[in-house]
Write a structure and sequence with these properties.
Elements (H helix, E strand, L loop, with lengths): L8 H8 L26 H14 L11 E10 L3 E10 L2 E2 L3 E4 L2 E4 L2 E3 L5 E2 L1 E2 L4 E5 L10 E5 L2 H22 L8 H6 L5 E8 L2 H14 L6 E9 L4 H10 L2 E5 L5 H10 L3 E4 L2 H15 L3 E18 L3 E14 L3 E6 L2 E7 L2 E4 L2 E2 L2 E3 L3 E5 L11 E10 L2
Parallel strand pairs: 11-12, 11-13, 13-14
Antiparallel strand pairs: 1-2, 1-10, 2-9, 3-8, 4-5, 4-10, 6-7, 6-9, 15-16, 15-23, 16-21, 16-22, 17-18, 17-23, 19-20, 19-22
């Protein structure tokens, strides 16, 4: 878009190279057309390029298939009810077709084209207003025609159940089984426990032993309640409110507590051997520790030639002399014995194609996002950081 004040197409092209979108005129494969709808500039060229790319990539629709599309916009019309504008991406949509959109099913009652006229069918690439939506869908929802009403309702029901299970998954309470994964997601930084035992001495011994484990770096185990007797409904309610685990030693959970634990997704663990209890807690704690990383050498590449792309971007033509270079690996750039820069490899190519890795004895193109001071004979050293087992 070139009609805004201060428009700078070259700057935009330069910014797009960060996402590996390089303009054709810069030696890349991305078609870029400067356009202005106000000044009617470049519109014909844009249409030509769209048709050319579609032909080269063999982008085709089959009008004989059942329609698929995407919701562009939707509203609740006072006279017609929920109305959605659908862009047909494949197939042909007819009045009377059964469809699924989002997690609801419906049937096409009417189709209205861009001129406001009612039509009986709409083909590929055609935007059309669809009446027959049970509710107002969200922009971006997929629209799909299915064989019959029964199938539409089955698919809609499956999607409702899937959404419900996803919500339950997101709201689930902490458990020893999934503790490590939730720590990795950044959702938990300490382990809260409710301890119930057969006698006071057992509870105190467990709390003391957990206190010794608590000396592990970066880990906090918090006993928010300790007591004697069977695990009760009140214990489960406290655990649910504080996102804690319930640990029982030589005690059991009563029936009401078990039912509530199932409903609230509270994890209850029962033990009769202290060392087994501590072993499980320690394993969970180690999953909570920040990993310790060590550097692993990948390879070296020598800069043989440099190319300037746009105003500032520099691509280095390199030869891998040792090991391998991988996409997004950590790198250091040396000139002689002097380290010039350290960061991440931004782009790795073989000829014009993106490469995951380039091995010893092969040439490649390398660029960095925030560094372009490269010269012939510079050495690029690649490495990765690998987590060490604790």
């Amino acid at each position: 878009k070139i009609d805004k004040p201060g428009a700078n197409p070259d700057e935009v092209k330069q910014q797009l190279t960060k996402f590996e979108l390089v303009a054709e005129e810069w030696g890349g494969e991305t078609v870029m057309v400067p356009v202005s709808a106000k000044q009617k500039t470049g519109l014909d060229q844009l249409l030509e390029m769209i048709l050319l790319v579609a032909e080269v990539q063999e982008l085709k629709a089959n009008p004989k298939k059942m329609a698929r599309g995407i919701i562009v916009e939707a509203e609740l019309d006072k006279g017609m009810g929920p109305v959605a504008t659908v862009l047909i991406q494949n197939g042909t949509l007819h009045i009377g077709d059964n469809f699924v959109v989002g997690s609801v099913a419906g049937k096409v009652r009417a189709l209205i084209n861009e001129r406001g006229k009612r039509i009986r069918e709409a083909g590929p690439a055609m935007p059309v207003e669809v009446l027959g939506m049970p509710t107002v869908p969200q922009a971006g929802d997929t629209f799909r025609v299915v064989e019959d009403e029964k199938t539409a309702k089955q698919i809609a029901h499956q999607r409702v159940e899937f959404d419900r299970s996803q919500r339950m998954q997101q709201s689930r309470k902490v458990s020893l089984d999934d503790l490590y994964a939730r720590i990795q997601e950044g959702k938990i930084k300490d382990l809260k426990l409710i301890i119930k035992g057969d006698v006071k001495g057992s509870v105190e011994a467990i709390e003391q032993s957990l206190g010794n484990l608590n000396k592990e770096e970066g880990v906090a185990v918090k006993v928010i309640h300790g007591g004697t007797g069977d695990i009760s409904e009140a214990d489960v309610m406290l655990a649910a409110a504080s996102d804690a685990l319930v640990i029982g030693f030589n005690v059991k959970a009563d029936e009401r507590a078990r039912r509530m634990a199932a409903a609230e997704q509270v994890d209850i663990r029962s033990y009769n051997i202290i060392y087994k209890l501590l072993e499980d807690i320690e394993a969970a704690m180690k999953g909570m520790l920040e990993p310790v990383y060590e550097e692993v050498f990948l390879g070296k590449a020598e800069v043989r030639q440099t190319f300037t792309v746009g105003k500032t971007a520099v691509i280095a033509g390199c030869y891998v002399t040792e090991g391998k270079m991988t996409r997004n690996c950590n790198v250091r750039v040396f000139r002689g014995t002097e380290k010039l820069w350290e960061g991440k490899l931004d782009s790795l190519k073989r000829f014009k194609e993106d490469a995951r890795e380039v091995l010893t004895g092969y040439e490649c193109g390398i660029s960095f996002e925030k560094f372009n001071n490269l010269q012939e004979k510079d050495i690029i050293e690649g490495y990765t950081m690998q987590a060490k087992p604790r």
